Amino acid sequence: MVERDGPLVGVLAVVWRDGEVLLARRANPPQAGTWGFPGGGVKRGEGLAEAAERELLEETGVRARAVHLLPPLEQRSEGESGTPSSHWILIPVACAYESGEPRAADDALEAGWFNPDALPEPTCLGLDRVVEDTIPSIGGLAF
């Protein structure tokens, strides 16, 4: 990875179907082994919507259309010496489900649909807030 002064930008694909949210268990750092939204880094020249749709398909095989950007999350971690080891600005992107059944691929260990009242543990930073903000059944975003 190229050394940078500023944070990296990533997207998270937030997809709901029949009252359940799509989650993937991360295979790689940061937060390896935790459950979160499918996502990853935005490539140079790629739009946020494009990146969310691409990452979703690569990690889960599910197709969805990006509809709306949600408030960003920031994730920072420190190395053993106390210096920053990673710094990400993550943009959740609400996506309308189109097709496909989740299967773990790319850098996901597992993937599946989950009821918001029974989310798997452990979860990635910010997952609870984004789920709560987007639950369709309680007046969240309609997409």
What features would you describe in this structure?
It contains two helices and eight strands, in the order E-E-E-E-H-E-E-E-E-H. A hairpin with an 8-residue loop joins strand 2 and strand 3. The longest helix is centred in the middle third of the chain and has 13 residues. It has 143 residues and is mainly β. It starts with 7 loop residues before the first strand and ends in a 9-residue tail after the last helix. Strands 1, 2, 3, 4, 5, 6, 7 and 8 form an eight-stranded mixed beta sheet that branches. The chain has one domain: Nucleoside Triphosphate Pyrophosphohydrolase, CATH 3.90.79.10.
Q: Do you know the CATH architecture?
A: Alpha-Beta Complex
Structural class: mainly beta
CATH T-level topology: Nucleoside Triphosphate Pyrophosphohydrolase
Percentage beta strand:
35-45%
- What is the H-and-E element order? EEEEHEEEEH
Descriptive terms for the model:
2 helices; 8-stranded mixed sheet; mainly beta; Nucleoside Triphosphate Pyrophosphohydrolase; single chain; 143 residues; 15% helix
Layout: helices, strands, pairs:
Blueprint: E1 8-17, E2 20-26, E3 35-36, E4 39-41, H1 48-60, E5 63-69, E6 73-78, E7 84-99, E8 108-114, H2 127-134
Parallel strand pairs: 1-7
Antiparallel strand pairs: 1-2, 1-4, 2-3, 2-8, 5-7, 6-7
Give a short synopsis of this structure.
It contains 2 helices and 8 strands, in the order ββββαββββα. The protein is mainly beta.
